[in-house]
Design a protein that fits this description.
alpha/beta; globular; 11 helices
């Protein structure tokens, strides 16, 4: 079970990597748009420098045809590094790209997955990760947890090495359901991840502990008490 950050914001990545067990970073064109017209490859290299070479960095192609997506992938390898996971939408041309990149030995994430049919084809194409869009499926009335669970079941039954990297979350409870359904990893926007720690009941409990301690020892912390 791993948590990745679904953002291209450098400050958020730096801070959350310092505080939380962050396993990597994912991005897509819509996420990059939030940062403005940054020097793209320099920006991705900076993300790499923050997370290091062990944690995965996922970058999505922007072309929509086979040749264009292959050129995009080559540009990422040349300007960032060859360890990057190339995110490829699972459409007709995308499956051909996944197969071709895997023949080259590249890391590939099959993205924009809205159902089991796409996922099963991506598995056979050799994708390293499959990214089902949890919230977007639920918005369409699809039982997203069931989709994730069934994909996990097929992976286990046939022995695929592919991992489920669940994406598209709007609230922490969706993350919980994806993990319980069998997702190996989740990629989460910083604002949604921070909601995990924003529960009023947790803040109230921490404040009650502080008040009880202060009633005994004033403003002193454990470290400030005399032995």
């Amino acid at each position: 079970m791993k948590y990745l950050l679904d953002t291209a914001n450098l400050d958020e990545i730096r801070e959350l990597c310092e505080y939380l067990p962050v396993a990597g970073v994912t991005s897509n064109p819509s996420i990059v748009k939030k940062e403005g017209a940054v020097p793209f490859f320099a920006h991705m290299r900076e993300i790499r420098s923050i997370i290091g070479n062990v944690r995965p960095l996922h970058i999505q192609v922007t072309a929509t045809d086979y040749d264009g997506m292959m050129r995009d992938a080559d540009a990422v390898f040349r300007h960032v590094d060859e360890k990057v996971y190339i995110k490829v939408p699972v459409d007709f041309a995308g499956v051909k790209v996944i197969k071709a990149l895997k023949r080259q030995g590249a890391n590939v994430t099959a993205t924009a997955v809205y159902g089991m049919d796409q996922a099963f084809i991506a598995l056979e194409a050799g994708a390293d990760c499959i990214a089902p869009y949890f919230n977007r499926m639920e918005a369409l009335g699809v039982d997203a947890a069931s989709v994730v669970g069934n994909i996990a079941g097929i992976i286990n039954h046939y022995g695929y090495e592919t991992e489920i990297l669940a994406a598209s979350f709007k609230q922490p409870t969706q993350i919980d359901r994806a993990i319980l359904a069998g997702a190996h990893s989740v990629t989460v926007a910083p604002d949604v991840l921070r909601e995990v720690f924003g529960k009023k009941i947790v803040k109230d409990a921490v404040q009650a502990f502080s008040d009880d301690w202060a009633s005994l020892y004033g403003g002193k912390t454990l470290a400030e008490l005399e032995s």
